[in-house]
Design brief:
- By secondary structure, this protein is α/β, with parallel strands linked by helices.
- It has a domain of about 60 residues.
- Helices cover about 40% and strands about 15% of the residues.
- α9 links the parallel β6 and β7.
- The two termini are about 15 Å apart.
- Bound molecules: 2-phosphoglycolic acid.
Length: about 250
């Protein structure tokens, strides 16, 4: 099944408002011509969502956030809810990025709650899974990502599964300059696809599975040439408009 490729930039904790405005302008101008054939989104920090939404008004480049809380409001100091993200102009939200899991205590159960909250608010969740280096080296990759994706998606209707994206991001490849080979990526993506078919047979073939972890203009096309690699979740390289555009071009091959 032909799935439209999807490239999403994860800016992590980078760029103030003025810096974000300049980068969004550049990205919008460079990415817009590809949007017929590639879905493009960026996820700036919360504090830059307002300026990013302004700069993306009328654009097909989508806006996303990097995290959310599962309650819609309440006494949760420091947190941001799904309805708040919708109000800020977001269409997408990352759920369970490995940095959240590693440094901020996101558990499989929290990722499930976040995914449900995002869907309930009409956001499109990008559910992130990935194994650490010791997990890969001990042959547990498929077990770990299988557990993560089953937990995040458990109890969702096929229609809900069809309204999300999965991102496979091996933790050892994030920000390290080490990329999974295209064969390593495809192996995991195919396994994830098989689980999606089990959980939601009618929706599984339409769900995009992105690869993330040191994606750059020079490896993007090769990774995305794999049958189950439907796009990229891009960290470092999404902070340079030229590199991000190079990756979008790789998706367009
Ligand atoms: P990276 O990050 O491209 O800088 O490796 C990817 C991610 O964490 O989403």
């Amino acid at each position: 099944m032909a799935r439209k490729k999807f490239v999403c930039g994860n800016w992590k904790m980078h760029r103030t408002g003025a810096e974000a405005r300049a980068l969004v302008r550049e990205v919008r101008a460079a990415a817009e011509p590809f949007c017929d054939r590639v879905d493009v989104a960026i996820a700036p920090p919360f504090t830059a969502l307002g300026v990013a939404a302004e700069e993306l008004a009328g654009s097909r480049v989508g806006l996303g956030a990097q995290n959310l809380h599962w309650e819609s409001q309440g006494a949760f100091t420091g947190e941001i809810s799904a309805p708040m993200l919708v109000d800020a102009g977001c269409r997408y939200v990352l759920c369970g990025h490995s940095e959240r899991r590693q440094f901020f205590g996101d558990t499989d159960e929290w990722v499930q709650r976040k995914t449900r909250a995002a869907l309930a608010a009409g956001l499109h969740p990008i559910v992130c899974v990935g194994e650490t280096l010791p997990e890969r080296e001990s042959g547990r990759t498929l077990e770990v990502v299988g557990r993560q994706v089953r937990a995040a998606l458990s109890g969702l209707t096929p229609q809900q599964v069809g309204s999300l994206t999965v991102a496979y991001e091996p933790v050892w490849a994030i920000g390290t300059g080490k990329t999974a080979s295209s064969a390593q990526a495809q192996e995991v993506h195919a396994a994830l696809r098989a689980i999606l078919r089990e959980l939601a047979p009618s929706a599984a073939d339409a769900v995009r599975i992105l690869y993330g972890g040191s994606v750059k203009p020079d490896n993007a096309a090769e990774l995305m040439s794999q049958p189950d690699v439907d796009g990229a979740l891009v960290g470092g390289a999404s902070l340079k408009a030229a590199d991000f555009t190079g990756i979008i071009q790789g998706a367009n091959r």
